[in-house]
Task: structure prediction
Amino acid sequence: MIEISNSEDFFRYQKQLKVVPFTQSEAWYAMAVAKGATARFFIDAKTNTSIAIWGVESKVPLFNSIIFRVSGEARTAELDEKTVQAFYNTLASLFKAIEIDSNTKYNVEMEVGLRRAGYKRPIGVFSCPLTLENNLVAEQSRNRRWKRSVKLAQKANLVVKEVSNPDNTHINDFVAMFQEMSKTKEMTHVVSYEEISSLLAHNSIKLYAIATPKKEVLAYRIVQVHNDYAYDVFAANSNKSRDCKGATYLLMEELFKSLKEEGVRYFDFGRIPPSNHSTDKIYEFKIGARGEKVQYNGEWANYKSLTIEILVFFYKYFKLKKQRY
Result:
């Protein structure tokens, strides 16, 4: 394993790889920097690179513990357990605590390699390791609710467009709408102007909007494209979009068509949280597109101290009130 000292060289090596989830993209890194984060970069080899990751060292309040957190991994289409084991074993020697939340398709070689390197599933899982993958090329029949909602939005003459050159107005509008949505849904996550501006500055990021005939924007969607694969990154829905029935359905339907025309074959609909509580509504919405249910590699942890791992779990669950999955 090799640590790369700067982002430019790291992303040059990353370009060799087939699988690059949006959380490992250069655009997502730019957003992390806008938050004030300092990243560290690692690859398994400079020649025939198979794995490349960047992550951020985070300090957990109260415990004075530093955790190296990694969201996903960029990798070749095919992996072998020995490559995975060697890479993550060396990574574990550099940090007292590592948390991985992988949003790439489940790979058994990945799991075997991680386990042999000493990683385990964490005490508490706080992100659902499931998604929907939509094949934009193959014909996929939507469910009745999806079709009915699209028709309602079309009858209201709602218009979907890609915002090719987002300006300050679009960014401010997105941030305000996201905050409005967060408050309505009692979400803890918020985004800043600087974060969204940094994200949208990259060519791999696309912004879509749906508006009324009077050009009042009801909702936005941000997606990231890597080769023939697209990822659902952020949604921002206004309270008014609820009054315009079918707005988000038509937004996604037209977004799928636009991506397909640009040569994108697959769309990762982001995490789906099937459950018996309020987050199940997200699952009900996304399943209407009839994509294939896919499992991510999910969460992994390597703590040198079990006591610290337990304390971090309590902090996340009781202090931050994170939802377990």
